[in-house]
Specification:
113 residues; alpha+beta; HIT family, subunit A; five-stranded antiparallel β-sheet; 2 helices; globular; binds adenosine monophosphate; binds zinc ion
Length: 113
């Protein structure tokens, strides 16, 4: 399967890794939209949030737990941060391997564009 993030998981493409365990990888976004912009992904390929199955529920919980750990370690937890998972075209999903964006280090506006 020709998936950019699977290649990052397999270390075929380099990334700046900030967290890794047996199920999860987190790395810096190549085009950061905030002082901290990290992508947290499952090592398992899941194309969109619509493809999350019941068997993945634990994995998705682990994705959020990893995001919390990264936010705490980077001292953005208390001031606030945003977790975003875009789904499909109109939301702006460009890489079809699910990823949680962690955005922090600046005030966030609402609603997003
Ligand atoms: P989305 O638009 O929600 O699918 O997010 C995809 C994200 O992946 C964007 O924020 C891109 O900047 C980021 N991205 C694309 N290629 C790479 C890469 N090789 N390494 C790190 N981040 C990437
Ligand atoms: Zn993939």
């Amino acid at each position: 399967m020709d998936c950019l993030f699977c290649k990052i998981v397999n270390k075929q493409i380099a990334s700046k890794i900030v967290y890794e365990d047996d199920m999860i990888l987190a790395f810096e976004d190549i085009n950061p939209q905030a002082p901290l912009h990290v992508l947290v992904i499952p090592k398992k390929h899941i194309s969109t949030s619509l493809d999350i199955k019941e068997e993945d529920f634990r994995l998705i919980g682990s994705l959020y737990a990893a995001a919390n750990k990264i936010a705490l370690e980077n001292n953005i937890a208390e001031r606030g941060f945003r977790l975003v998972m875009n789904c499909n075209k109109e939301a702006g999903q460009t890489v079809f391997h699910i990823h949680l964006h962690i955005l922090g280090g600046r005030p966030m506006r609402w609603p997003p564009g």
